[in-house]
Amino acid sequence: MDHKHREAKQIVIVGCAAGYYLSHHPHFRPVLDSITLVEATRIAGGASGKAAGCLAAWADPPCLARESFHLLAELATAHGGEQLWGYRPINAVDCDAVRVHVGDADERTEPQSEADWVAVERLKWYKPPGETAQVHPYLFTTSLARLAQESGVKIIVGKAEKVNVCVQGRKVHSVRVQSTLKAEIDDVPATNVIVAAGPWTGKLLPGVPVGGEKSHSVIIQPPKPISPTILFFDPGNLNEDGDNQLEIYPRPDGTVYLSGQTDYGLPLPSSTMEVQPDLERCRKLLANVELVAPELGRSRTITEQACFRPIVNIKGRDPELGPLLDLTPTKGLILAAGHNQWGIQNAPITGKVISELVFEGRSVSADISQLNPTEHLSSR
């Protein structure tokens, strides 16, 4: 393709930070192309701002995770991520209710003593050093949006209501947007539409099997800083309904992020602004800390919050396969949704792949063949 004499691209992104990679792709021409990011409420108003921010080379799916882990390090180096969004390498350890796991098949390395705020006899195994890191998800996502704006991306605060498709030729031509700032509905012209609206993807594109599950988290301020080690607590048989699930994430600012309480089968609110935490779920999170780290039980609670994680709802499909990500049968329409708990971790490779699909017509940086959504779309 002669990229010097091609047609202009009008790219509309619904709920995705792919604007950064689109605006940094070598074929993007600001004088010719336009990129518009549509956000229903605010940047990082949902799971992108309320997630744990765990980054892992060992995350799911493997076809995205390792390359994305490297891209996250590159972004931090290029843009001062250590200062701007709390990027740092960090250790990760599994902890169980009873120490009975020496020699388990999943034991990767012998437990160390760096997690000095948890009883060492509960430690199960460490992830290999160098394969885990973290960011503050809200700061990371908003920083990428700002960097995208600086490269020419326009941000519209409004609800995407419909992707308009030409009946003849079966291709996108615009996105209908209800402005949040004014009582107007506009059709934003588009040659390419990227739908990455998280759990709301199925609302915008009926027939797409992506929904959401509600997760709770609490941010606390401990009496004194704790060592930078992520802890995953496996309750064993303490509680079969999962009420004792717990993940602990110390952050560079001295706070600690707790998560682990999930509600299944709840109706999806109309927007992120309507998602409210169940305070009983948050209370259980705080109570569970006492099981593994009594020292943290004396912490001050800063925030109790909830969000909906985007889930691929396909019967029999292994959740570890990851999101639906690829071109669709509708020309110009790209789907990128269903990242579950790995949305922040896999955001860079997702954005880079999207930029390649738009400007090169195929994914170059990752093999996404197992993520193709075509056979799962009932109406697209």
TrEMBL record:
TM region positions: none
- Please list the residue ranges annotated as the FAD dependent oxidoreductase domain: 13-357
Write out the GO biological process terms. retrograde transport, endosome to Golgi
The record's section on InterPro entries has: FAD-dep_OxRdtase (IPR006076), FAD/NAD-bd_sf (IPR036188)
Q: Which PANTHER family match?
A: OXIDOREDUCTASE TDA3-RELATED, SARCOSINE DEHYDROGENASE-RELATED
Q: What Pfam family is a match, any one?
A: DAO
For this entry, the protein name equals FAD dependent oxidoreductase domain-containing protein
- Signal sequence, renumbered to the chain: none
Q: Give a Gene Ontology cellular component term annotated to this protein.
A: cytosol
